[in-house]
Structure formats: C-alpha cells, structure tokens
Design a protein that fits this description.
Largest sheet: 5 strands, parallel
Mean pLDDT: 91
Protein name: Assimilatory nitrite reductase (NAD(P)H) large subunit
Pfam families: Fer2_BFD (PF04324), NIR_SIR (PF01077), NIR_SIR_ferr (PF03460), Pyr_redox_2 (PF07992), Rubredoxin_C (PF18267)
Number of strands: 36
Pathway: Nitrogen metabolism; nitrate reduction (assimilation)
Radius of gyration: 31 Å
Distance between the termini: 71 Å
Bound molecules: flavin-adenine dinucleotide, nicotinamide-adenine-dinucleotide, iron/sulfur cluster, FE2/S2 (inorganic) cluster
Cofactor: [4Fe-4S] cluster; siroheme; FAD; [2Fe-2S] cluster
CATH topology of one domain: FAD/NAD(P)-binding domain
Number of helices: 26
Low-confidence stretches: 401-407, 474-478, 803-809
InterPro entries: BFD-like_2Fe2S-bd_dom, BFD-like_2Fe2S-bd_dom_sf, FAD/NAD-bd_sf, FAD/NAD-binding_dom, FAD/NAD-linked_Rdtase_dimer_sf, NasD-like, NiRdtase/SiRdtase_haem-b_fer, Nit/Sulf_reduc_fer-like_dom_sf
Length: 809
C-alpha cells in the first residue's frame, strides 16, 4: 500500500517538491493536492510577463491537468484546506472533503501585504500576486487611464512596467529615497530610476501614503505631507507576509513563518513546510531558487529509507534580477558597505554601467550590477564557493567591458560547476551533459530535460549560447543581436531602416518585431543614432533615447551637479572669453574651474536648472564634452610662435573644429594637429591625428588615448589643408555609416581593417566624392544645442524646470 501524502498549496514550491519526489521514488506515495486558486500549477514569476504583454495566461502553466492525471495526483482546485487535525492526521477542505495523510506538506506561500490605510477596501485597490490580480489590471486598463503603484521594489516596478504597456499613466509611490533599496545601493537605485523615467514611469520618492480617496471606487491617494494625486487604480506592492494562519490554528510552531529544521520538518510529526511559508534558521525566503532547493531536500528526506542521513538544507545565497525589458540589474548577497568591508567599483555614466563588488576577509560577499550583468554568474559562484580572492587582481574580479572580447559568449569561459540557471540551480556541466548525452537541439528541450530556464527565463540567452557552444556551432560566429529586445544585429537594423524607409524609433521597434514596446538603454540610443545618420535632414532627434548627459547637454557629476564645457576652437581663447567665464563662475558660485587635456576650461558644479542661464551668460558655443560627436581639436602652437613649426597647426585645428562640430558620430571623436613630428598635441593617440612634415601633412587615424591605448595608423600623406579636410570628411562619413553605435574608430578600424579603409576611401575616387557629399548634407543640418535651448523657453521648461508632479491640496 502506498503511503498517503497531502500537499496544501498548489503553488511553485509545493508542486516542485512533488516533481522531485516523482523523480526519486515515483511509486512511494499516493498524492493529493489542495489549491485555493482555481488553476493548475502555474509560474507565478511570469505574471509580470503576462501583464507586460509578453505571455498569455495559458503560456505560464507549469503542469497542466494532464500532468496530475498522468502521475495519479488527485487535485482539488478552488478548494482551500480549512482545518488540519494533526492527531488523527486528517485535513478538511472548504468544500468539506476530508483526507487522511501519512505525510503532510504545507506550501501555502505568502499573502501580499496590504497597507491598512483608510479607504484600502475601495474598488480598484488591489495587490499583484495571482492570475486574478493580473486580469483585474488588464480589464481596468480598458476603461481607465491612471494607475498608482505603491512600492518601488521588484514587484512594484514590474507591475508599473506592465501597466505602462497597457497604456496607463503610471505613478510609483516609494517610501525610501531610492528604488529597490533592499536590493540596490544608492547609485544603482538612482540609475534605475533614470532608466525607468525614460521609459515613462513617474516616481514619488520618500512618500508616505495616508489615505485612499474616492466614493466606492478609488479616485486618488493622499500623502502624509498633505499632497495627493488622482488615480483610477492602486496596486499595492509593499512586500509579502507568509501565509501561516492555518498552520497556527493547527498547532504548528510559527515565528515570522512556519519554523522548520534542515529537513523542512515542523515541530509536529509527519508535517513539513516548504516555500515562502517556511522559516529556516530565521529566514523566510521570497524567491524561487531557495524554495526549490528546499523542495529538493524535502523530497530527498521523505523518499529516503530509514536510517540514511541526508545533508539537509543549509540556507541559500539569494540573488535578484528585475524583469523589466531594457534594464539589466543584478543584486546578490551583502551588498551594503560597512567598516569590515571594502568594495571594487566601476561607474561609467556614459554607458550607464555601474558595478560594485563587496569584499570581506578576502571573499566576495555581495554585488550590485547595473547596465551590464554579464559578470553575475561568475560573482555568484565566487560567493557560493567562498573563494579566496587574495591572489586575484581587481581586473580578474571585475574585468572591464573592453578587456573581454565581446564577441565571445561568457559561457565559453565558465567552469562546469558554474550556475547557468539560478532559479533552478542548474550548472553548465549539467546542461552540457544533458545536451551531449540526450542529443538535445533546442532551448525548449534543455528546459524540459534540466529545468534550466523554466522559471524567470532570465537565463535563456545563456542556455541558447551553451547549446550553440556544445553542439559545435562556434559561438564567435553566432550573430550578435543589438540587445535583448531583438534578434537583429546592428547592421541588419540599419539595412531595414534604409530599405523600409523607417523614421521613428517606435516604428523601427514595431515594424522589426521588437519584443518590448519601449526598447532598452542599449537599443534606443542606437536606433536614434542610426535614424539620424540615414536621414540627417528629415530626422527628428528623440532626446528621450539619449543618455542623461546628452539629454541636458552637460556632464553629470557624482553629486548630481553638472559640468559646463564651452568650446574654445583649437584650444585658443582670449581675454573677453576668460572674463566672461570668470564672471559666470562668480555669479553662479561655480566651485571649480579646470583646464582640461582637450585645451579648454571646465566649469564644474553647476546646478541643473542653472544650465541654460550659464550658457546664455557665457555666450559661448557648446564644447560637446558630453556628446557622441567631435569633442576637441587639440593643437600645438605651430608656425605662429614655435621655432620648429613650419605649418599653421592652430589655423588648421580651428578650421577642422568649425567644420565638424556637432556632427553625430557612433562614439566620441577627438582630433589633434601638431605642426612637426615632435607632436606636442599628441596627434598619435587621437581618432584623427595630423602631423606636419616637410611641406605636407600626415594623417593618422584610429588612435586612442583612453582605456584601450592605441597608436594611430598612418592613413595618408597629403600636401594641402583642403586635402586633409576632404580625407577626414570621407573617413568620418564612412565611420558614421558603417560603425556600430558606441564603436570607437580604433575598434572599428581593427574590425574592418586599415587596408579596407584605404581601399574604399582613398582608392575608390567615386566613393570618396560621394562620402564627402553625404557628409556635407549631414553638416548642413547642425545647430549649437545650447543656443537652441537658450532661445527656446519651451525647451528650457521641458528639460530644466523642476517638475511639480503633485497636485497641492
Ligand atoms: C508578479 C511576481 C513576480 C515574481 N517574480 C519572481 C522572480 O522573477 N524571481 C523569483 O525568484 N521569484 C519571483 N516571484 C516570487 C515567487 O513567485 C514566489 O517566491 C513563489 O511563487 C513562492 O512559491 P510558494 O509555493 O511558496 O508560494 P505560491 O506560489 O504563492 O503558492 C502557494 C499556493 O498555496 C495556495 N494556498 C494558500 N493557502 C492555502 C490553503 N489553505 N489551501 C490550499 N491552498 C492554499 C495559494 O493560493 C497559492 O496558490 C514573483 C512573484 C510575483 C507575484
Ligand atoms: N524579479 C524578481 O525577482 C521579483 C519580482 C517580483 C516579485 N518578487 C518577489 O515577490 C515578493 C514581493 O515583492 P515586493 O517588491 O512587494 O517586496 P519587497 O519587500 O522586496 O519590496 C517592497 C518595497 O515597498 C516599499 N514600501 C514599503 N512600504 C511602503 C509604503 N508604505 N509606501 C511606499 N513604498 C513602500 C519598500 O521600501 C520596498 O522597497 C518579494 O519576495 C520579491 O522578492 C521578485
Ligand atoms: S609640435 Fe613641433 S611645431 Fe608644434 S609646438 Fe611642438 S615643436 Fe613646435
Ligand atoms: S535563472 Fe530564472 S529560469 Fe533560469
């Protein structure tokens, strides 16, 4: 006779436990499941995808009714257990069904915490926990426009993204001063806010809700500071509380949740708990990875014959990733600094990348990654193994983006023991073995066979890479999509824009089948650049697709102030400009003036709302110090005063800077002109470096003085200034048209080859002429961005006025 096993809770942790039992000892138990919800077991995690329109409710079913039938699991849906008699070992459901058990598992999950606010019972105030909540939001969006999400944590932000996709206006109310404060530190939280604001969310930080207003239905919410906002829907996402009422009534020991030991045993014989309703060593987890580990341990324990000792559950290092398209965020372990910790940080504001690795006693104990999460599997592995890093260099712990070959998938260098799918605890070795031993050829087969990618789906790209890698298709040859929103490469997107005559970012995403409505911080700026490059005359720049510095035409500093860098053509200034700079510095209390390597003066520490006034008072043009465009043309003093100079380096530098300023390029471009090979202007490490030699000019290209130091290649030697200008025109236009967005000239030339560049530009005279013509068209449409804003009150309002989002009452 089979033993009788009853499961209370038809959710993710409970059913995973049954799956593990069926794997280990399929004939051991006769199983009965009671579920409060009227559905078979589904993937709660993917409710975010249903709301965001990426999946249908039917797509997220994990085990359909056939599965229960096949494994002879008796299922009672929509029928919660209301009583447990632990003496007689009988459960009773709401419908009156009674069922004897030999073993009983509580897997009742959590309830969303609903703030006990006056008015919280009004129609239109809901949580986000189950299919019903999801359906309510979708229905509401058909008749109403305004939504408020209370809580700027993982759930709140995923709900907000979904509501935006449903075309609602979304205000997120958050109690802390930056988003996801339980998972992120302040810089990452702020970067996240900027990204989500660009996607259309509005945030109200440090706000405490006092009351929900409205007659029967919600009409607005009021805050404790007296302000309020109107809304038609309130979604509360302020955390969860383990669902333990039934357990308490049944005499189980509870604290925050049902207290269990390392074998998921409660204080009552033959009664176990797994999932969010269980508390192990003082922790009740709220993510699936640890819950699945618990399920495995419990299955192992109750399938093991007498007197065998299994290792038991030891607790988990948890990590989180936000499932909002276009936002790469990763957080794991103890990521906050304290006196015992030290941190390695990388913060690239231009690319929107932030990485922090926290180290204590020579071990990585926590990490936060924003914008580029490729290092996450490796860091997690280091944390899980407690790897001693005393002999590792900082670069080995956090390799810079540029130092790794971006064409090689990270799976190629991963160890077999490294985890590919965190949710399901599946390692690279497990997947490779399954692929080779069972001849798997698709991600879906890998999922069925190993569980990898079966939960949040975040590891799908890695699984796909591993599949390609293991089945022998060289990973380096696989085409590299522009970003996670599309399978198309940069080149394919540009070709489609040209062929289909696409004009707007959203049109590009719609027509080319993007898998998200808004795109992400990788594809949006790239598409915006490509549209402008393809049709420089008609294109209307989409400033919302630009990074913060380019949106406000100044460089943001770590304290939130900005740096203003006016243009000084060829590094030449005069007393009038210097006087103006001094006056502006005094008037706006500018704390630091600094002469830069690009031969101009930086004004540091300007408040955002002062920027247009500072530009107006200076009366100088923008130096583009923030732009993917020509930055500076550095010049040596040359023939005017230097005894070695035989050429007019200053004159040529000024002419070049005036000719090419404000032209958009895939990445920043720097130039320098030196009037003799002594090279005082450092022409050898610029994108375009010009050196005067006996009666001629040498043009060096693709030099770089930054992270990837690279000496420029000699491209040609010409006699006149006009020839230099034409050659740079043609080269730059070829770079504009063929480089990938964010590819510096140095990387571009290395990719396509110097010989190729010489062939298409210098040897093909027709092409040379055509490139110059197209460059001239693009140049005909440039404007000084500062002047445009200084002359337009509307633009100043839109970009620089502090926005008043609350309605004062
Ligand atoms: C929108 C959303 C997105 C999420 N995204 C992620 C993510 O990306 N990554 C991640 O790791 N986690 C995520 N989570 C959390 C994850 O879904 C949960 O940690 C997981 O579902 C918990 O599993 P569980 O089985 O403990 O509880 P549940 O899945 O909640 O299952 C418990 C079930 O028990 C039922 N039940 C309760 N009481 C009774 C009773 N008396 N009788 C019968 N049945 C009962 C409930 O109705 C419920 O169906 C997300 C959660 C939500 C809501
Ligand atoms: N991608 C993911 O991994 C994912 C996605 C969704 C949900 N989840 C899980 O689901 C559970 C619920 O998520 P959650 O985001 O609700 O929980 P949470 O506890 O992580 O976040 C709740 C947030 O609400 C804020 N808050 C609390 N009181 C508030 C108030 N009165 N007003 C405004 N803000 C307030 C908190 O500051 C906190 O940031 C968690 O266990 C979470 O891990 C995970
Ligand atoms: S590069 Fe030559 S010409 Fe120019 S300043 Fe130096 S020494 Fe003089
Ligand atoms: S990491 Fe979530 S499914 Fe693999």
């Amino acid at each position: 006779m089979k033993e009788k096993l009853v499961l209370i809770g038809n959710g993710m942790a409970g059913i995973r436990t049954l799956e593990e039992i069926l794997k280990k000892d399929p004939d051991r138990y006769s199983m009965t499941v009671f579920g409060e919800e009227p559905h078979p077991n589904y993937n709660r995690i993917l409710l975010s995808s249903v709301l965001q329109g990426d999946a249908d409710v039917n797509d997220i079913v994990l085990n359909d009714y056939d599965w229960y039938a096949k494994h002879q699991v008796s299922l009672h849906t929509g029928d919660p257990v209301v009583k447990v008699d632990t003496k007689k070992q009988i459960v009773t459901s709401a419908s009156g069904t009674q069922c004897y058990y030999d073993k009983l598992i509580f897997a009742t999950g959590s309830n969303p915490f609903m703030l006990p606010l006056p008015g919280a019972d009004k129609e239109g105030v809901i949580a986000f926990r189950n299919i019903k909540d999801c359906e309510t939001m979708i229905e509401t969006s058909k008749n109403y426009k305004k939504a408020v999400v209370i809580g700027g944590g993982l759930l709140g932000l995923e709900a907000a993204r979904g509501l935006l996709n449903l075309n609602m206006e979304v205000n997120v109310i958050h109690i802390a001063d930056f988003l996801m404060e339980r998972q992120l530190d302040e810089p990452a939280g702020k970067m996240l806010r900027e990204e989500l604001e660009a996607q259309g969310m509005k945030f109200h930080l440090k706000k405490n809700t006092e009351k929900i207003i409205g007659k029967n239905r919600v009409e607005g919410i009021r805050f404790t500071d007296g302000t309020s906002i109107d809304t038609d829907l309130v979604v509360m996402a302020v955390g969860i509380r383990p669902n333990i009422e039934l357990a308490k009534q049944s005499g189980l020991k509870t604290d925050r949740a049902i207290v269990v030991n390392d074998y998921m045993e409660t204080n009552v014989p033959n009664v176990y708990a797994v999932g969010e309703c269980a508390e192990h060593r003082g922790i009740a987890y709220g993510l699936v990875a640890p819950l699945y580990e618990q399920g495995k341990v419990l299955a192992e324990h109750i399938c093991t014959r007498e007197n065998t000792i299994t290792p038991g559950y030891q607790g988990s290092i948890v990590y989180t990733q936000l499932k909002v398209s276009g936002v790469d965020v990763f957080s794991a372990g103890k990521f906050q600094d304290n006196e015992q910790t030290k941190a390695i940080r990388v913060h690239d504001e231009f690319e929107g990348i932030y990485k922090k690795v926290v180290v204590q006693d020579n071990k990585v104990i926590g990490a936060v990654l924003f914008g580029d999460t490729a290092d996450s599997p490796r860091l997690l592995q280091m944390m899980r193994e407690g790897q001693d890093i005393s002999n590792m260099s900082k670069v080995a712990i956090l390799p810079s983006e540029n130092s790794s070959d971006s064409k090689v998938s990270p799976v190629a260098t991963m160890a077999d023991s490294e985890t590919i799918c965190g949710c399901n605890g599946v390692s690279k070795g497990d997947i490779c073995t399954a692929i080779t031993e069972r001849g798997l050829t698709t991600v879906e087969e890998v999922k069925q066979c190993t569980n990898a990618s079966r939960s949040c789906g975040g590891c799908k790209p890695l699984v796909a890479d591993l599949l390609a890698f293991t089945t022998g298709e060289a990973v380096t040859n696989t085409k590299e999509p522009m970003c996670g929103c599309t399978d198309l490469t940069h080149e394919e997107v540009v070709a489609e824009i040209r062929e289909l005559g696409l004009s707007y970012p959203r049109e590009v995403m719609n027509v080319l089948g993007w898998n998200s409505d808004e795109g992400c911080s990788k594809c949006r700026p790239a598409i915006n650049y490509y549209l402008g490059m393809v049709d420089p005359i008609k294109n209307k720049d989409d400033h919302t697709s630009r990074f913060i510095n380019e949106r406000v035409h100044a460089n943001i500093n770590h304290n939130g102030t900005f740096t203003v860098v006016p243009r000084m053509y060829g590094g030449v200034t005069n007393s009038e400009q210097l006087r103006k700079i001094a006056d502006v510095a005094d008037k706006y209390n500018i704390p630091l003036l600094k002469v830069t390597g690009g031969q101009r003066i930086d004004l540091f520490g300007v408040e955002k709302e002062d920027l247009p006034k500072v530009w107006g008072d200076l009366g100088m043009r923008s130096g583009s110090a923030y732009a993917k465009a020509l930055r500076t043309v550095k010049t040596c003093v040359g023939e005017q005063f230097c005894r070695f100079g035989t050429q007019d380096s200053i004159g040529l530098g000024i002419e070049l800077e005036k000719k090419f300023e404000y032209i958009n390029t895939p990445h920043k471009v720097k130039m320098a002109v030196s009037a003799c090979p002594r090279n005082c202007a450092e022409s050898g490490i610029k994108d375009f470096g010009i050196v005067g030699v006996e009666g001629a000019w040498e043009l060096y290209v693709a030099g770089n003085g930054g992270v990837d130091l690279r000496r420029g290649d000699l491209f040609c030697k010409v006699k006149t200034k006009e020839e230099i200008i034409d050659t740079i025109s043609a080269f730059m236009q070829y770079y504009r048209e063929n480089a990938r967005y964010l590819e510096r000239t140095s990387h571009f030339v290395e990719r396509v080859g110097l010989d190729h560049m010489k062939k298409v530009i210098l040897e093909d005279k027709e092409n040379f002429k055509a490139l110059i013509e197209r460059m001239d068209i693009a140049l005909s449409n440039r404007k000084d961005p500062w002047k445009e804003i200084v002359d337009s009150e509307e633009k100043q309002k839109e970009l620089f006025e502090k926005k008043q989002v609350e309605v004062m009452k």
